[in-house]
Amino acid sequence: LLHWEPLYVFSESPTQTFTKKKSSAPIAFVNLEPEWNLQWHLKKDTLLLKDLDQATVAVHSLKQNELSKLLDFFSQLPLEFELKTQIQVLYKTQLRGFVFGKDCDLCVLHHKAEGRLFLTDRNGFYNDFLASAYKKTQGRVLVMISNVQEDPPEGALVSSEIYELAEHGDQPTIGILGQLGKVVCYKAQPSAYQVDYISKLISSSAFYREPS
Q1: In angstroms, rounded to a whole number, what is the distance separating the alpha carbons of residues 16 and 20?
Q2: Which residue has the higher pLDDT, 40 or 193?
Q3: Among 6, 13, 174, which Cα is nearest to 90's?
Q4: Which of 10, 12, 66, 180 has the lowest tally of Cβ within 10 angstroms?
Q5: What is the per-residue pLDDT across 52-94, written as a single tens digit (0 to 9) for each?
Q6: Contact residues for 49 (Cβ-Cβ < 8 A; gap 6+)
Q7: 143-160 pLDDT, tens per residue?
């Protein structure tokens, strides 16, 4: 995966936090010996595990009205644990050199497709943001692109125009993220398949860590 270096720190934009509560927590995903106590510990050949009662998602977009829609979307996900959703409006003038500093289980970046897409790499709006967020979260990022020309085929996350952008639009990084399952595209709203995928992604991002 490509590597970027952030240029300077920016942390002025206010954030808001919203909480979704569910009545129960899931059963542990893996069996650990008693001394591990379902906390953050490293055990060879297993995943890391933390308390299974809460996850935090940080959602970012250039458009305030899209953040309101996304807040509703995340509040309605079929999760069996409490979900805290932090939202933040981004500004194009502040994206260069952006350093991501939030502690969250999953960083979500939303973009509404309007005209030509400039997402990643040299001319992309979000190159520094994604580089910093990817490093801070150890890869736990999701790019959601709405208002694409056509919904992806049934059972798919990404529409063909994103891969065309990667191949012919000098933005290979968005194609790499798509291949890694870190991009979801939709015209008006995510499909049932995408909703299920995002729900599982939040769960795995919150409660699993690969051993180093």
Answers
A1: 13
A2: 193
A3: 13
A4: 12
A5: 689 999 999 999 999 999 999 999 999 989 999 999 999 999 9
A6: 28, 29, 30, 32, 36, 38, 39, 40, 41, 207, 208, 209
A7: 999 999 999 999 999 998
Check the CA dihedral 146-147-153-159 and report its sign: negative
C-beta separation of 145 from 113 below 8 A: yes
Q: The whole model's pTM is what?
A: 0.77
Nearest to 206 by CA among 105, 81, 107: 105
Inter-residue contact 94 to 60 (CB < 8 Å): no
pLDDT at 39 over 90: no
Ramachandran angles phi, psi of 112, nearest 5°:
-95, 120
Task: Name the 3-class secondary structure at 43.
Answer: coil
Helix-strand-coil percent breakdown of the chain, rounded to 5?
Answer: 30, 20, 50
Between CA 8 and CA 96 the distance in angstroms is: 8
